[in-house]
Amino acid sequence: MMIIRVLTQGQYTVEGNALVELDAMDNSLLDAVEASDEIQFTANLQKVVSFVQTKGVKVPDEELVESDLIIPAPDTSLEEAREMFAGYPRDLT
């Protein structure tokens, strides 16, 4: 199980097979950042955020827990993502 924060959206717990799926999606997001492909980055970011929100369980806002992973806000630019993803783990599981 991982606690994943989507900036501006809150925290979600994601576990099991959903983590494996998220790992592949997340790697595609990193690939788009490395390739400086803004169109692919934006599409992949939307997919990752939607996946976490639909497959994860929202952590109540009043509950304080440390995040294992932070995903940028849905409106993050490629340039902002480059800074955020410096040192970001390639594999989640």
Describe the structure.
The protein is α+β, with helices and mostly antiparallel strands and 93 residues long. The protein has one domain (2-84). The chain contains 3 helices and 4 strands; from the N terminus they run ββααββα. It has helices at 17-34, 38-55, 78-84, and strands at 2-6, 10-14, 57-58, 69-71. The chain has a 4-stranded mixed sheet with strand order 3-2-1-4, with helices on one face. A hairpin with a 3-residue loop joins strand 1 (2-6) and strand 2 (10-14). The longest helix is centred in the N-terminal third of the chain and has 18 residues, at 17-34. It is globular. The N and C termini lie close together (10 Å). The relative contact order is 0.27. The mean pLDDT is 90. This is PspA-associated domain-containing protein. Residues 2-87 form the PspA-associated domain. InterPro entries: PspA-assoc_dom.
Short descriptors:
globular, alpha+beta, single chain, 4 strands, 4-stranded mixed sheet
Task: Estimate the strand proportion.
Answer: 15-25%
Separation of termini? 10 Å
- Characterize the biggest β-sheet: 4 strands, mixed
**Count of the separate structural domains:** 1
Number of E-type strands: 4
Question: What is the 3D form?
Answer: globular
Note poorly predicted spans: none
Mean pLDDT over the residues: 90
Class from secondary-structure proportions: alpha+beta
Q: Output the number of helix runs.
A: 3
Order of helices and strands: EEHHEEH
Radius of gyration: 12 Å
Strand order, sheet with most strands: 3-2-1-4
Helix content: 40-55%
Protein name: PspA-associated domain-containing protein
InterPro entries: PspA-assoc_dom
Organism: Syntrophaceticus schinkii
Domain PspA-associated: 2-87
